[in-house]
Structure formats: structure tokens, C-alpha cells
Design brief:
By secondary structure, the protein is α/β, with parallel strands linked by helices. The chain folds into 4 domains: 82 residues, 2-Layer Sandwich (Gyrase A, domain 2); 162 residues, HUPs (Rossmann fold); 72 residues, no CATH class; 124 residues, Isoleucyl-tRNA Synthetase, Domain 1. 51% of the residues lie in helices and 13% in strands. Strands 7-6-5-11-12 form a 5-stranded parallel sheet, with helices on both faces. A 4-stranded antiparallel sheet has the order 1-2-4-3. Strand 5, helix 5 and strand 6 form a beta-alpha-beta unit. It starts with a helix and ends in an 8-residue tail after the last helix. The structure holds one RNA strand.
Length: 544
Amino acid sequence: MRSARAGIEAGLSGAVSALNADEKVDLELRPSREARFGDYQSSVALKLARPLRRAPAQIAADLMGRLDLEEATVEAVSGYLNFRLRPRWLQEVVRQAAADSNYGSSDVGCGQRVQVEIGSVNPTGPLHIGHGRSMILGDTIGRLLAFTGHQVSREYYVNDQNKQTRLFAASVSARLHGQEPPPGGYTGGYVTELAEQARAELPGIGAMSEAEAEARLRDFAIQRMVELLDRSVSRVNVHYDEWYWESELWRRGLPQAAIERLRAGGHLSEREGAIWFSPAVPGWEEADEDRVVIRTNGEPTYFASDLGYLLSRFEDRGFQRVVEVWGADHHGYVPRMKAATALLGLDPQNLQVVLVQMVNLKEGKMSKRQGRFVTLDELVDRVGSDAVRYFYLLRSADAMLEFDLEAALSQGNENPVYYAQYAHARLFNVERTAQRTHPDLPAEPDLALLDKPWELAVAKEIARWPETVETAARELEPHRLPHYAQRLADAVHGFYQAGNELPDNRMVVPDPDMTRARLELCRAARNSLRIALDQMGVSAPEQM
RNA sequence: GCCCGAGUAGCUCAGGGGAUAGAGCAACCGCCUCCUAAGCGGUUGGCCGCAGGUUCGAGUCCUGCCUCGGGCACCA
């Protein structure tokens, strides 16, 4: 069953082309801003007025006459087209949403193989709450893409060859020998702990030559950090499909191959003893500065690895599309990677980068702390996984996130997580009550009984779920999920409230047929809400 | 200096060129002899940062400026 949006769009599109409008015109189909304008609105008649040299109202009336939709009725008002979903169609939506445990899923992705690369920070320290935002956002993008028919692999790229990780290993080594870490090294207590663990688990490490010990230690320490990291993100329901090690790239000769390809294409030059990449390429003029690929001392930069990483994904492993989720502080790196992609003969369109803005912690009324000094684990300890995920997803990626600890900790109105979860728990409770009081309900509901405004309001929100998912997945905008959950929960609480005001309007009433019909609506709403929460990685409790 | 993002109600933020700009929270006023009040209804609250421009129509697109955050490595 197609979404309401898709159905109306198809019909409207047909009607517009019947008017012989030359150019392709945006249908301007939107959810209505006000109830009196119906459920969807289109201003396409206003758009067509000029090319058709006719009055908008006349065009709107003409279009209305050509529209006969199963989803909605149409009304032309002062140049606008207002669509109202038909009760019959809404009933069908309810029937389906109640039955389909994957309601809203689709195959629009056509099985496209997508890699979502999430996080990939240097594994040299604990994750802070800014990293956490990237992880959760990326994970949710992965969920959305999988739900819309893409074949998704969530990957963490483990840097283990670069300068920082070497410095990290040197810091562990220094602790192992009872010395201070080198200048600019890592001084946290976890470094000393790692050294202790290495002493216990790598027998003879203290006696090895410095070079050998360094290599062994680096492997050991990074492996340990990756395990810790996995444990931290698992607590917020983030699970990677793949941990891809930078060293693996070099073993497979991929950076070398990429460098060769760029050299052959004339995009590398030698200067001051180093090898530079010149990203001059039409369309990516922003990346106009040369960058070092091989240092003067012969060692590659991270950029060399990244070139190989592009080949690894698009060629070696055959991903058709890569979505990278980076902290916004890496934005300057985007044009360079896009240019490199193009110069390697790949399509930069298939490399999408989602930049995630920073997180600030708001404690109490006054103090604000920069996210980089608070660990993700600490935050999860304080407020729990559900609140962390919900609050992180609430804001669009390019808005800075002000994490309100007070609100996340509260058990009251100011905590939006509970609002949606409470709606779910309430619906579950209604179903439980109905089972108790009406053990012999009819198998099939008569959904035509659902005609109250608050009932139809719930059905309309349920009907919006498939298009919400589709848009969120297409635009890579997970923040639409909590906003949707909020709206659906709104409608659910309104539905419930009607029963508080008048017992006849309760979901469970003496009349078994009415109870059965409303129960179907409960199931449909609860299913939609559960799926929405599930896409966010937030739990849907059965009681609160 | 250059690049990216943000600037919308007291606070935190949604707004895909279209009708009178929205939500949550906060503030104020109401609603439980209960299918869960972690809920519901109502009221108050806006030069959409500023100035131009494009358009029949701009919070939305363009230009300039202001403020805040971030970035501009042979770090990642």
C-alpha cells in the first residue's frame, strides 16, 4: 500500500500533465498547516498561472475536476487545492498498521549496498558526549536506510597507523617503564591501567627491544580501546557490523594503489621532499590547497590511508554508496575527500558526508560545559540510554545541541522521552484491560465505527508514518523521528483523554463491537509508535 | 583573512518558495468516585539578527553586514 502522500502525488501529477503545462513543475504538495485546509495542500495552481496564462482559481478548479483519488477528497479554495483523507482509506491504513510489524518499511532503497561509517575517532581515549552524538545519529541513519530497503553495513574505521595512535602507544610504553608520557602524549589514568594490563598479558614485553615492544603495545592498546569503545556504544544501542583496521588497508596495498592512480593522473607532485596531492578539479574548487600525502620522512599521512579507504569501500568491497558521519570540526576535509573521490575515478555523489555539530551540557540553570570534557559513559550513567538517544536525535545534525541534564533527568512534563513512551505504555495497558474485560471479542473489527475526530486524528498520524520514514531516510534527517513520535503521542493522549471526559468514549466500553474497533486503532497506533521508537533505538515500555 | 554551521516566543528548538509563523518547556487558569494525571484543555507570549535584492508571493532563495560556535597541519 502506498503512502497517502505518494497516492495524492501520483494523482495530482497526472492531472497537471493533462493540462499541457510545458515545463515540469513542482507539485508543491505539503501537509496542511491548518486543519481547515485539509490534510495536504498544494499551491501548484498558483505556480501554473503564469505558464498557462490562466487565473489560479480557474486552474485549481480544473485540476479538482480531474482528480478522483481513493486516498482523499479534493477541494479548490482560492487557488489552493486542499486534500482531505477519506475515512475509508484511513480505515484501511489502520487495518494495515495494526497487522504489519514492519509498518512503514519499504523497498525504495532497492537493496543498494550502503556503508554508514560512524565515529571513527582515534581509539586513544574514552568517547565524549560529542562523539556520542555522531554515533547515535549515524546508527539511526543506518536503521532508517535498512528500514527503507537498503543493505546497510555500519562500520568503524580503526586508525592504528597514524601519528596519534603511535603517540598513544608511546605513552602506554612510557608508563610501562615507569616514565612520564612524551610531550603532548596521553596522560589519563586509563593509559597507566593499559600499561599494567600489558605487563600482565604480554609476557616479556618489558624486556623487548623498544621498536618491537612499541609495535606489540600499539596493537594491544588499540585493541583494548576498541573493546572499551564497543562497550560504551553498546550501552546506547549502537552496534557495528564491521571494525575495519587502517593497517588492513596497507596490507591489501590499497593506499599504494590509490597513490599510483593519482600519480598516473598527474595529481601528485614532489616538493620540499614530500609528496603532495593537488585537488584541482572542476566542481570542487574549494579544495584548492595542496596536501601532503607522503611526509618528508617517507611516512604516509592519514590522507594516504583515506585514499586507500575510498578504494576499499567503493571498489574492493563494492559499496554503492558511503555515508560518513563526522563531527562538524572536520568540515574542511569534505571538499578534499570529494575531490579525491572524483580524481580516483569514482563518483563523488556516492560519498555523502553528514556533519554533526557539537554538544554542550547544560547543568542546572547556569553552567554550561563543553561536551569534549564529559564522557559518553558518564552521561549514560546519569540519564540512561533512552534519554540520551532521544535528546540527541531531537535536534537536526547542523544545530548545536544543548543537552539539558535537568530535563533529561526529570520524570515530569519537561522530559519528552517519557511523553512518547507513556503513550505506548497506555495503549498497551488498554489492550491488556480489553483482554481481561472482553475475552470474546469479534475476530474482525468494523473500522467504520471509528468516526470521532480524535479517532481520525490518530489514524491520520498513523498514515503519516511511511512518508516520515521515507523523508527522514532520503534526507538523512533522523530528527524527524522524535518529532513524529511527539505528534503521534499527542494524538494518542487525545484519544485516551476523550474517554476520561466521557466514559462512552473510552477505548474499552461495554459494546464489544465498538471496543473491537477502537482496539484495532490502539494496536495500529501502538505498532507505529513502537516502530518509531525502535528506529530511534529507544525502548517502548509496556508499563511505566 | 578564508571556509562551514547557527541566529525564529522568556528557554530549547521545528519549519521541503505559498493561506493568519508552530511545538515542547517555563508562567498563569482549569480538569482524576481513575481503560495509567509521566495525561488533557485554555490563556499569555514574535521588527523570524540587520539592510538590500529576486519573485505574483521570502522565516525559506541571492548579496552585504552583525553576533555566536567550529575549522583553516608533513594532527585526525
